[in-house]
Amino acid sequence: MMTVIIVLGVIALIIVLMYNSLIAKKNQVENIFGGVDAVLKKRYDLIPNLVASVSRYMEHEKSILEKVTALRAEANKPNLSDKEKIDLDSKITSALGSIMVAVENYPDLKANENVMNLQHNLTEIESQISAARRAYNQAVTDYNNAIEMFPTNFVASFMSLTKKDVFVISEDERQNVNVREMFKS
User: Which of 15, 36, 165, 184 places its Cα 20 to 30 Å from the Cα of 148?
Assistant: First the structure.
């Protein structure tokens, strides 16, 4: 009888440890995603200033500016899922890259102090976003491994935990940089 109680106690302890480990990993993912959200908010707050600064010069790229503004408005909507936020981040990254490339075609704009300051701030925020994405992706990978690997997958299934998405770069960002185009003026 004592052996059965000890075995049941050990099994209960293992289940409690797995449960606590899964909760810790889930909370880690949420915590780091909160950090990503904070940096993305800084980027979204910067976008109106950037658009206002460059819109006077960039009449020909009006569609890019409208796209960035629309994406920012969409990103500021409440109750977006993590997947929606990740998808919007990818679109905004691409659109902001288009603006920065277009700025290079306007010498007056490129030399404008406000635009230079905004570009500097944007570069700094993009570095912070990149670091936050790496931390988030690592936490999500640990979490996804825990909910998919044996034996924690049984406890995760009982807790209804589901797999989380990681940040991935867009196809445009995967392309090699065309140095010839960069120095063409």
Answer: 36
